[in-house]
C-alpha cells in the first residue's frame, strides 16, 4: 500500500475548541500579537513545540499505575535504568526532571571560565547552561547546514576540519566534545554515523570525552537507516546502540524521543564523573533512584523507550513532515529542505519579502497562521535573536517559522487543514503587514514581548 497510515487508533480523545476568525483576531490582539500569550484552548492546531506534548500509549498509561513512589530503591527506577541501558549502554544512568537539569549538572562539573565546549550545534538550554558557568559554547555545523535549499542528507553533521583545528589550537581548554542528535537547528537535521565516528576518532586522539545530547536519537537513527549507504539492512535499535556505544555519556530530554510528558537523564561511563554528578543531583534534583521525577514518570519513560524505536512509528512520524513539506512546496511556500525529523521550517524572510527583517516577517507569518486557521507556530528569527548583548537590534541570520509536530497527536486531516491555511495565507501574502515591538524584557524577549501592527 502507498498510503502510510497513523499506526495507532484512538482510545482517549481531547476535544479541540473551534473558534471563528473574528474570535482569533480579537484573541491574538489581546495577547499583543505574541503567540506565547494565548491560552492553549484557543488554539486549534498547536505546533509551538514537540516537547512534552506527545500522546502516551495505553501501555504507558498502564505502566503509570505501576509506578512505585518509594524514596529509595524503587523498582520503577530499575525498570527505567534497564530500558535506558537496553538502548544506550552507559554504566551510570541518573534521572533528572528534564534535559536541562542533566545539562546543568554536567556543566557544573565540566564547565567554568576559560573552557570551550564544541558541538555540531548547541540547543539553547545547553548553550545557556554552559555560558552560565562562564564557559564558551561553540557551534561547528557543517557548511551545508547554512544553505536552506541544499538537500544534503546529513545537514546536522559536525564540521570535522573545524573541530580538528579547535582541538589542535585550544585543546587544553576543551573538557568534552558534544554532538546533538538530531541537530535541532533546521528542524531536526540528522547526523550520519560516519560523521559521528569521525568525531569519536578526533575526541579519542585528543583524550576528550564525547557526550551526546540524544533528545531525538530515534529520529536520527531512522534517517541513518534511510539515507546512509550500507545502513539499510540494520534495525533502528541496532543503529541506536552503535550510536551511543561511540560516546562516553549523554544528556536526554524524555519529553522528545522518550515519548513522555516530562523527564530526562544524564548517563555516563566514567565512575568519578558519575559520583560528582550524583552528589550534585542530590543537592538540586533528588535521591539518585528518582532524580527529579515521580516513580510513575520513570515507568512512562521506560515504556516510551520501547515504543519510540518501532520502525512503523518512525516511518509515520517522518512521513507526516515530508507530506506537509511537499504540499507547501507545491504552493510555492519556501521551506528549509530536506524537512527535519520533528519540524518543518518556513523561510518567512523569502515568503514575505516585502516585510524587512526589523519588521519581523516571521512573527507576521505566525500571527497570520493563527488568525486564518488557529494554528500556533513559533518564530525563529529576528524576534528571537535580534537584540544584541550591547543593546543594539540587528536582523538575525534568517527569519524562519517553525511548525513542530507533537508525537502521535495529529492526523492527516489536521495536516491537510494546515496546508489549506497556508494556501489562504500565501494567496494574500502581499497584504500582510509587519510588526513593531512596543514592550520587551531585557532577556529572552520572544516569550513576553508585546507587538503592534505597522
Ligand atoms: C528540549 C531539548 C533540550 C532540553 O530539554 P528540556 O527537557 O526541555 O529541559 C536539550 N537539547 C535538545 C536538543 C532539546 O531538543
Chain-wise SSE layout:
Elements: H1 21-30, E1 45-46, H2 58-66, H3 75-87, E2 92-96, H4 99-110, E3 116-119, H5 124-131, E4 136-139, H6 160-170, E5 177-180, H7 193-205, E6 210-213, H8 217-227, H9 236-245, E7 249-253, E8 264-268, H10 271-284, H11 295-308, H12 311-330, E9 343-347, H13 348-351, H14 361-373, E10 375-376, E11 378-380, H15 382-385, E12 400-404, H16 412-427, E13 435-439, E14 450-453
Parallel strand pairs: 1-10, 3-4, 5-6, 6-7
Antiparallel strand pairs: 2-8, 7-8, 9-12, 11-12, 13-14
* Topology as a string of helices (H) and strands (E): HEHHEHEHEHEHEHHEEHHHEHHEEHEHEE
CATH architecture descriptor text of the largest domain:
3-Layer(aba) Sandwich
Q: Tell me, briefly, the overall form.
A: globular
Distance between the termini: 50 Å
The average pLDDT value, as a whole number, equals 96
The bound ligands are: pyridoxal-5'-phosphate
CATH topology of the largest domain: Aspartate Aminotransferase, domain 2
Structural class from helices and strands? alpha/beta
Give the amount of beta strand, in percent.
Answer: 5-15%
The total of beta strands comes to: 14
**Into which percent range does the helicity of residues fall?**
40-55%
CATH homologous superfamily annotation of the largest domain? Type I PLP-dependent aspartate aminotransferase-like (Major domain)
Give the strand order of the largest sheet, numbering strands 1, 2, ... along the chain: 2-8-7-6-5
